[in-house]
Amino acid sequence: MEPQQRFSGCDASPGDACMVVYSPAYDGEAPGSAIRTASTAMETYSPYQRTDLSEVRVHDAGDLVLPSGDIWKAIDTIEAYSGKRYDEDRTPVMIASEHALSYGAIRAAAARYPDLHVVHFGAHADLKKEHNGATLATRTVMRRVWDLLGDRRIYQFGVRSGSREEFEWGVPPHVRMEHLAASSIDSCAEAVGCAPLYITVDLSVVDPSGFPGTKYPNAGGVSFPRLHDALMSFDALDVVGFDICGLFPGCDDGTGSSAALAYKLLREMLIAYA
After folding, report:
1. Closest CA relative to residue 222, chosen from 252, 192, 201, 244
2. 184 CB contacts (<8 Å, ≥6 apart)?
3. Model confidence pLDDT, tens digit, residues 149-204
4. Fewer CB under 10 Å: which end of the chain, C or N?
C-alpha cells in the first residue's frame, strides 16, 4: 500500500504520525495518484495559516485497494482501515472518488465517537432513500449517515441539487441544510460545540468553472476561497476525521487544475485540524 510518490509534505513515518492520509481505489478510480502528482508542483507552506505542512506529522499510506463492484464490501474495508487508525490514536483522512465511500469512514468514526456530528459540503443533497434500486450510492449516502446518527447531528452546505423529496425531508430536526451557500457556518460551529466532528467534502460543492474534474458538474457552486473560509471556521473544534471526495481525474481539464485544488484543500485541512 505504500506509495512510490507521496502527497507533498506528508512524509512522517507511520509510527510518528498523528494523521494518516489514504486513498481508496474503487472500480478503477484512484484520485490519490493524480493529487500526489499535482502536489509536487505546489508549495507545502500555507500563507493563510502561516504554517508548513511538513511541520504537521502526517503519513501518506497510499492507495487502499477495495473489492470491485461490491459497495458494501468496499465500505467494510474502509471502516476497518479507519478503525485501526483510531485504535492507534491517529486521525484517518480519506481521499476518494465516489461520495458513497465516505460512509465507511463515517461508520468508523461513529463507532469510536457515539456522539459524532457530521458536516457535509456538496452540490447534491444525497438524501434519497434509494437510487436506481440501491440503498447505498452517491445520491443516498447522507441518508445512510442519518440512519446511523439520527436527528440534529448532520449539517449540509452548498446544496443546490436534489429531488423534491430530499429538500422536503432535509429540514430540522432531520438535518440542517443551507441551500446554495455556506453563510451560517458560525452558528453551525456553535451548535456542534465540544462534540466530535467529522467533515466530508464532496468537491462538486465548488462551481464547475473552478473545479471541472467531476462526474457531476452543477452550476452555481461556491468558490475555493469561500469553501476554504468555511472549513477554517471549524479549526477550533474537535475534528476527529475528514474526507475529500469527488475528484475524477479523467474529467479534469488536462492541466491538472482540479487535482491541484484538491491538494491545496487537503493541505489546508491537515494543517487546520492537526
Report:
1. 201
2. 157, 178
3. 999 999 999 999 999 999 999 999 999 998 766 678 889 999 999 999 999 999 99
4. N
Cell 467531476 found at: 214
16-28 in b/e burial notation, b at 16+ Cβ within 10 A?
Answer: ebebbbbbbbbee
Q: How many CA within 13 A on the CB side of residue 47?
A: 2
Other C-beta atoms within 10 Å of 230: how many? 24
DSSP code per residue over 22-76? EEEEBTTB-HHHHHHHHHTTS-SEETTTTEEGGGS-EEEEEEEE--TT-HHHHHH
What are the residue ranges of helices labelled H in 133-256? 141-149, 164-169, 185-192, 224-232
Going through 98-189 in order, the beta strands assigned E by DSSP cover: 117-121, 154-159, 176-179
Enclosing H/E stretch for 183: none
C-alpha cell at 16: 510518528
Contact, 74 vs 26, CB < 8 A?
yes
CA distance 246 to 204: 6
Cell of 57: 506529522
Place of cell 468555511: 230
> Is residue 57's pLDDT more than 70?
yes
Q: Which residues pair with 51 in a beta bridge?
A: 46
Count of beta carbons in the 10 Å neighbourhood of residue 117: 22
Q: The whole model's pTM is what?
A: 0.96
